[in-house]
Amino acid sequence: MIIVIVGPTGIGKTKLSIALAKRYNAEIISGDSVQVYKRLDIGSSKITDTEKEGITHHLIDILEPDEDFSVAIFQKMVREKIKEIESIGKTPIIVGGTGLYIKSVLYDYNFTNTSRDDSLVEKYKDLSNEILHSILQEKDYESSLVIHPNNRKRVLQAISRAATNKVSNNKNKNVLLYNAIFIGLRMERNELYELINTRVDKMIQNGLLKEVVHLHKEDINSNSVNSIGYKELYKYLNGEYEFDYAVDKIKQHSRNLAKKQYTFFNNQFDVNWIDVDINDFDKIIDKAVEIIEKLI
Question: What value does the mean pLDDT take over residues 168-182?
Fold first, then answer.
């Protein structure tokens, strides 16, 4: 059995995962495409050592910010971790909000075919990397989140795959390979958006700008800093945005992402949704346990 906890940032996935890990003798695998990077802590809402409460976590702080990472690499790493965790008699819990990454692990995705339509090279030759990436955002938003605009080759590959409505050469991408139980946390939209806005303000107060300044000074320009919270403050540091405007953009992009995450999870997974009451989290834990006990 694999427990999968999904939902937008700040809704309580971490807290729930710790409670379930204690109950089901589990280890936790991060399903987040940014938390793999060292020093990207505040912007990725990375769990702290204190918050882990002694539970073993995987795929956190394993790469330098300038190292390459992709959904295919993630798939390989997580499948290996699942085997490792199950081999010692423990339960894997995958926690995160990067839907495409999580689906690539649990379903029959094949990334061996990375060919692209070469005609696109000519078609888009006069477009800047940023405009080309915006085209990918329209065609395959999930992929755009994990491919840096400057990685033109991968952007073109993703656009090519989106044009044929497939990921690589997958014919069985809806075949679930594991006995997985999907638990999702959700909240009324206005309440969630208020929570997201408050969370961004706290990130700023906790030193997100200082974190980004260090990355910017190192001239880090990879997938890692293309994520929400980092890309907007990079534009501020490059003189493209005023600071307050950059913060507003972080909030806007975070809200947009939350909406798209819900859509992806609803369409791609058989999720058992739990409505979150932030004033009674024990009720959420009890409901999650009830769902798991019925399905195991």
Answer: 76
Token duo for residue 211: 């974190």
- β-strand 26-30 against 91-96: which pairing, if any? parallel
- For 181, other C-beta atoms within 10 Å of its C-beta total 20
pLDDT of 203-223, one tens digit each?
A: 999 999 999 999 999 998 877
Please give the single-letter amino acid code of residue 107: Y
Report how far residue 34's alpha carbon sits from residue 198's, in angstroms, rounded to the nearest whole number.
Answer: 21
Please give the structure tokens belonging to residue 242: 């005023």
Give me the torsion for CA of 186, 30, 148, 194, rounded to 10°. 30
Are 158 and 144 in contact by the 8 Å Cβ rule? The answer is yes
Q: How many angstroms separate the CA atoms of 247 and 241, rounded?
A: 9
pTM summary value: 0.83
Domain boundaries, the chain: 2-113+168-295, 114-167
d(CA 86, CA 27): 10
Other Cβ atoms closer than 10 A to 291: 17
Q: Which CATH architecture has domain 2-113+168-295?
A: 3-Layer(aba) Sandwich (3.40)
- Model confidence pLDDT, tens digit, residues 81-115: 999 999 999 999 999 988 889 999 999 887 655 55
The backbone torsions φ and ψ at residue 90, rounded to the nearest 5 degrees and listed phi first, read -110, 165
**3-class DSSP state of 77:** helix
pLDDT greater than 50 at residue 168: no
